[in-house]
Amino acid sequence: MGSTSGPNSTSGPNSTDGTNRRDLIKRSAALGLISVPTMSFLSACASGGGDDNSGDDTAGKTSKSNPFGVKKGSKLDVVVFKGGYGDDYAKAWEASFQEKWGVTSTHTGTQEITGKLQPRFNAGNPPDIVDDSGAQQIPIDVLHKNGQLLDLAEVLDSPSIDDPGKKVRDTLIPGTLDAGMQGGKVVALNYIYTVWGLWYSGKLFEEKGWEVPQTWDDFLAICKDAKSQGIGGLAHQGKYPYYINVAIMDLIAKTGGLDAMKAIDNLEPNAFVGSEAATAAIEAIYEVVEKGYLMPGTNGLTHTESQTRWNQYKSVFITSGSWLENEQLKQTPEDFDMKFLPMPLLPDSKLPFEAIRAGSGEPFIIPAKAKNLPAAQEFMRMMLSKEWSTTFAKEANSLTILADGVDPSVQLRPGTQSTVEASKAAGDNTFRFLYTEWYSEMGTAIENASNELMAKRIQPKEWLKRAQAAVDKQAKDPESAKNRRD
Fold first, then answer.
1. In this predicted model, what pLDDT tens digit does every residue of 260-284 receive, in sequence order?
2. Which of 70, 382, 401, 450 is 20 to 30 A off residue 77, Cα-Cα?
3. The dihedral of CA 207, 213, 219, 224: what is its sign?
4. Where are the beta strands (DSSP E) in 149-237?
5. How many CA atoms lie within 13 A of 418 on its CB side?
6. Which residues in 95-221 belong to E strands, given as ranges?
7. At a CB cut-off of 8 Å and minimum separation 6, what does 256 contact?
């Protein structure tokens, strides 16, 4: 996603446990290419399916091949976050959709999702389908609470285009719908298979003779060596502290195991304060700050500014999701050799080094008040076809949540390929936080605390206190009881 998206996602009660996450990677790895990164998700509006529009001018006749009643000659309003994945894939989809259905599209590619769309949602005139991602994403939980998203059950229960004998939901990598759930309903379709962690340059490592660090001590040793040579150890996207939280939360999960992760998502009173894993993780991150291993100036940079300096070898490591390679194509030297790295381990970690945070990202949504619901629902159904999934992989260098959905001839770039290999190495050992999708206000509060920590304005103990306060505040909301991980 190119920013706080990368910085995001959501999940529901039915399949949010560690087993489903693990199955997701395991099965995708077994499918060959299918376990790569990216971030994309889908959200939709509150009620209704094609039948609700039977009286308007966008409703056509339904049939086996046209389950939602797409009407020839109608128009579709599509808005796509134009970040790391660009929007060429969406333009290709729209051309295909017009050829098949005779529906013309109004296309908007932008990074200003909130600025352009919040007024339209407020006025009851939203687009028909939206890639709601990026730093200016409209929080999915907020749209859901306002009744502005379509329940995507009808799309997911419709016949698969590639195999009409199967429902669409049965053709997806297990667990990938979790991130789009709110209150037990899938209201956003996280379309891209994403991996989060650290990144480095294979070329720089070879030149310096560094070995890939598997422990935090080894990670710090490289940072120390880099500093002595005038190179930053760790860069982070300071203006978007979502990114440094990738490192913090990965360390918590890998140190304390899935129970430590679930304690945060389930809003436990000891999620942070009283958690040995959280304490160890935040102290480890703060050590990087205290020892001066941060890339100079990184606290004041945007995601792209910080990432570009990293591409210029001004820092060894950077945190991000698997959209990073796509986002930095123009800034990355040809021989940079971008590589993905699972978060190194603190002592006595419960998960192995190979464990990674992985799942679906980049949410697509269908607003409840979309003017052309039949076409929007069919468009989403076609997104989950092998043809459109392959189109996405070719145009955006990323895999989708469709199981075995990308033609084997598609060649992935080095960074993306390294995430495929990391996913296979992880096997069962994957995890995924869901609080970022379920509780956007809580997530922002924790990010703000991290921003203060990285700037040395607060100490680890205060960070834990603020993070726990955010959890405790969220726990008081009765709606929170609808989201639970077992």
1. 999 999 999 999 999 999 999 999 9
2. 401
3. negative
4. 181-182, 185-186, 188-201, 232-235
5. 20
6. 104-110, 129-131, 181-182, 185-186, 188-201
7. 263, 275, 276, 277, 278, 350
